[in-house]
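Worked example 3 (structure in, sequence out).
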């Protein structure tokens, strides 16, 4: 497998979510698969691919970048469920 991933698309819903939240996020590896979480939960690495979305950045793990072609809204569901369970309204 090539070390440099192909261009990764980001769904419009994900872009809208990140713009509205005003935060940086990271697509990282979890036991449940790829997940998008705030950088406060998963610190970006130097090897991450950086995608500018408005004034914010989506950091994509180099590991995940090898396996995905598109960043999808479903990758945010785990984080949003966590916020709902814990009562966090800051997202």
């Amino acid at each position: 497998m090539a070390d440099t991933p192909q261009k990764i698309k980001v769904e419009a819903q994900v872009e809208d979510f990140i713009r509205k939240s005003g935060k940086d996020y990271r697509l990282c590896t979890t036991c449940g698969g790829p997940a998008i979480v705030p950088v406060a939960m998963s610190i970006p690495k130097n090897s991450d691919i950086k995608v500018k979305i408005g004034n914010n950045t989506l950091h994509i793990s180099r590991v995940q970048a090898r396996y995905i072609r598109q960043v999808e809204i479903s990758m945010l569901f785990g984080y949003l469920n966590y916020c709902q369970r814990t009562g966090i309204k800051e997202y």
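Notes: The chain has one domain: 9-86. The first strand starts at residue 9 and ends at 10.
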